[in-house]
## 1
Amino acid sequence: MKLSNRDLAPIRYHDAGVSIDEAARVVGYVKGLARKTFSKAVLTGIGSFGGGFHLKGWKDPVLVSSMDGVGTKLKVAVLAGKHDTVGQDLVNHCVNDIMVQGARPLFFLDYFATGRLNAEVTGSVISGMARACRENHCALIGGETAEMPGMYAEGEYDVAGCIIGAVERRALLTGAGIKPGDVLLGLPSTGLHTNGYSLARKLLFDVAGHGVHTRVAELGCTAGEELLKVHRSYRRPLESLHKAGLLEGAAHITGGGITDNLPRVLPRGVHAEVAAGSWPELPVFGLLKRIGNVPEEDYRRTFNTGIGMILVVRERGRQEAERRLRRLRESVYRIGRIVKGDARPRVIYT
């Protein structure tokens, strides 16, 4: 028998798993957070179809953009029930990526997706983004919140971010002037940052049998607290050295470790000699290596191993660079040098 519309119970969007009211709560919350990151250059508010930013005061600007996520670190956040730090991770990661090219962060946009919106969780994630944007002098200018029933497991979500920055063309950092004799200065990471989490979770949770709330003696904290340590921003040291004309290049050490990331900023004809053991190893890296008997090459290409940023400076400018970094209360380690090489740049561990 064919049913008419009169015989059918009304089916609303909410019945399909999407709550417009919950989305409105999120937008209302985000508006307040984002407004605190705005400068006079922001010309539109949250809720517009597009974000407007007035690029004023530049002579010959180059726009530098980057987009990233935080990977399976989100799994740890969900297990721990702590969501405010992954937003910081996302912003800081993106900030570091454009600042190694000399760019100043201007504005940031986020994408948050989940199966069923929870305004408190979403708000907590975005509060971390707003906090990091304020700390990095960057406006949270807009984004997208997507509720997609059936796409994610209960309680899970994904986040991604896009950052736009600018640099005067003459000040763009390309690494083209890096040459043999230049010095490699390493700045420490806080931990895993946002890379290697699939292996770290397998080792700590599956192999070692720790729970997210298990206190691990070697770490001096719980497994979750260690894994959720915030991916730090290197804005201040990068900005200081670049403004002083001391920086020849910089590499953000993310997925691929020093092995794969440092060659990305080197010109043809040089190699980087890195002295293994020239910086302190954070306890988490040694622990993970021991639990999984991780081969050295995998270890170096999976984790940052304690160095989150590498700065390339001239030998004649090294002391001034170190002095400026110490003034910022930065720990800094001389981890190697640039040497003559063949056509393809690579890292040589000594």
## 2
Amino acid sequence: MQKDKINKIVKLLSSYKNSATIKHEHDTDSQESLLKIAIKYANGGSVIESGSYIRSSINKNPHSFIAHFNMAKLFLKKNNLRNAITALESSIMLKPGNMEILLFLAETHEKFGNIQVAKDYFFKISKKNARLFEPYLGLARIFAKQKRWNDSINSLRKAKRIAPLEKVVFYDGGMIFLEKNDIDTALVYFLRAHKLDPDDKMINDMLNKFKTIKKIN
């Protein structure tokens, strides 16, 4: 089963097969070198080049969890959620219990609309590490989608207690209260997010929308 899943993600790399050429001036002798170059290209926005190096890295060692994980991140950059999930599943099989990969899996399933799967992952993560705010915030979003407001707000409060200085907690909290049609509380959350990061574009765009409803000093 594990071998079949890994072979599946390797086949997904065919889309990168002829898309870019490995540059020989780079040190490509080791998988680690290939991954470093791939990450550098990805951070620079060069998705095609990054994909080629990750493909070569996985070809060198199909059982490297970090190579599959980086491929998943590349698929996410392209908003290819289905293939990202496949790559993440390969990565977690090779590195069971890795919290970062599990969080990516949960959040990607949530974006893809696999709500129950995402919820199960968030619950699993919260039980393994109660100090992480992300699973509680994810559960708060999911409960809000299901109109389970008490559960949503309780989960949001847990996230706030763990991470009182994380702007995403207050931004997502504001979105949850908007969904609940509690405009006043939503505004409080967005203002708190703005205080934590006054330059965040998404937060500022949201506050600008409120100017049509309320006067914000």
